[in-house]
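task queued by scheduler; priority normal; single chain, no ligands, no partner chains; default sampling; output format set to structure tokens
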Amino acid sequence: MARELRLNAFAMNCVGHQSQGLWRHPRDQSPNYKHTSHWVELAKLLERGRFDALFLADVVGVYDVYGGSPDAALREAVQVPTNDPLLIIPSMADVTNHLAFAATVNLSHEPPLPFARRMSSLDHMTDGRIGWNIVTGYLDSGAKGAGAAKQVTHDIRYDIAEEFMAIQYGFWEGSWQDDALRCDRDAGVFTDPAKVHRVVHDGEYFHVNGVHLCEPSPQRTPVLYQAGSSSKGTAFAARHAECVFVGGNSQSKMASDVAKLRALALEAGRDRSEILVFALVTVITAATDAEAEAKFEDYKQYASTTGALTLMGGWTGIDFSKPELVAATAATSNAIEGAAAAFTSGGPGAHRDVESIGRAVALGGGGPVLVGGPQRIADQLEAWAETADLDGFNLAYAVMPETFVDVVDHLVPELQRRGLLKTDYAPGTYREKLFGRGPRLGDNHPAAASRQMWARQPD
């Protein structure tokens, strides 16, 4: 029996996302990112195509490693200008009934209580269709803009993340009991104070003492995404994530990474069904292979190598404008270890020079670019899923919204014909749709420990 795939559209509230320079294409509409109608129409399209979610990337900071300044990023629209991803979600939720929204938020720059409230508010406003992609940041420019002297080291960022998650679980899962809300007009009691508990955390990085400001939302904790590729990031994902976003161009390497993740999850007391793995792919399709190939050749004319190297510089912490210094700085990266490894590992898919990086990243952001008619693309997605043990794909775009229109009109019917994609949505919250069980995290997830707060004496 065919494995049913999950599909996310991968986008960002900005002009240039993964495919640098493609904003110059005459049919690209990504400069309309600042208009609500742009996102509303995209959401309706994705729901028509039975996408599971719109996965919204985000970055706090500017890509200023290339050439030692933000000039290239600003000139080429390399994920700047960029707006807040959370603010566009309610409008999209209002015109859809099932499409979910997974938003990236960098926990390194977030006070715990205001963040908990924003995510609970979104879970309420979407009727339980919200997810959070947990990131710890990688740009010095973002850390400095948020008031820090510099970005903290990679492994410490994950130590901070562990504390942050414990606090969020306290707010989302433990602060309010299920029956705390009474809304008793006759008695004049809206909330039973005895059933609302204070979250107290006195750790190395956070000191918190307060109650959650929101009543329990449909999911309580949003669906949790994570995309860490380092050893520390993978271990973090195995403990906390429900959906894991992976990248890479080698099916065998990806299969090894996914197997490691699943093994770590089992060690953490979680089973195979509790973690879904999504791979980055850019699909360029049309009615026939020949039409898709012609479209690909057209797109390549607009791809920017400089923009790609600017993006890769931010990801790796390596200034690719100075090829002679790349080798000396690559091994000391404090940014995304997986991205740096694509240049330094020497293994399959590793880049040997700056020019090859620019070519590989310019269209699709360094992930696989699949080109062809519906049958060819469906074959390739099925092969990737089978070989690498994937549950779905984050589909990036080359031209907005043309890439997604082509996927919905050409590829989706073929996937449905093969039994690889649902023909209708399951009922319930995002978590219920993904996993076919209740709206809240299971008892073997680390968040469940926070529910023990309910057994404590009232504050």
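post-processing summary
- Residues 6-62+77-299+366-455 form a domain with the TIM Barrel fold (CATH 3.20.20.30).
- Confidence is low (pLDDT under 50) at residues 343-349.
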